[in-house]
Amino acid sequence: DKTPPKPRQPPPTAVGPNGEEPLPIAIFFPGQGSQYVKMMEGVKDMPKVKEMLEKAGPILGYDILDICLNGPEDKLEETRYCQPAMFIGGLAGLEKLREEKPEAVTRASVMAGLSLGEYTALCAAGVMTFEDGLKLVKLRGEAMQEAAAAGKQLMLSVAGLEKDKLQPLCVQAAQKEGAGAVCQIANCLFPGGFSVGGTEKAINELKTMAEKAGALQAKIL
């Protein structure tokens, strides 16, 4: 459908009994880890969601709705399946919100997401089409699945250390474990809060080093 989207209606200048200015609205999409068996059960029959699922089949080469509804859980948790499921699920949730509270969608001035949710947000904001977004997410999930299968890897949640203190510890942990070791900051979650990914021994070494350096938390995920 190449029909250009309708222009957004300007937000109301005043709401409420005392003419208060409306609060800004942002829509935030979750990332991998929020999936669960039976997800999308309540929205699968919505026309827009059915349309997305019909388009998804030829792109993915499998029935993503069946995996969402029936699992098993360990299959849905596989990155190559989980990421397309979360991408479509996020957009399905947006359609549900549009049906129940249309003003929340039309007034939204920000679309954002955590990790994989960034792709959902870009699609919801009209930066790319559903088809292009799903192709990217499929490729991303498959690449991450392949990388994860290359060797034993771990994630570490670190809180209470600034980046300029944590980064050298990552380098030291990788160097200590020798050739092939990886230890890198993967996500900046909040000031002084990070997730770090890498090979098993290097991450375990970083955990010890971070605790000795005064981290409030150094937890294997």
How would you describe the overall organization of this protein?
This protein is α+β, with helices and mostly antiparallel strands. The chain has two domains: 124 residues, Malonyl-Coenzyme A Acyl Carrier Protein, domain 2; 70 residues, Malonyl-CoA ACP transacylase, ACP-binding (Alpha-Beta Plaits). The protein contains nine helices and six strands, in the order βαααααβααβαββαβ. The strands form two sheets. A four-stranded antiparallel sheet has the order 4-5-3-6, covered by helices on one side. A two-stranded parallel ribbon has the order 1-2. A hairpin with a 2-residue loop joins strand 4 and strand 5. Helix 1 packs across helix 7, helix 4 packs across helix 6 and helix 8 crosses helix 9. The model has no long low-confidence stretch (mean pLDDT 91).
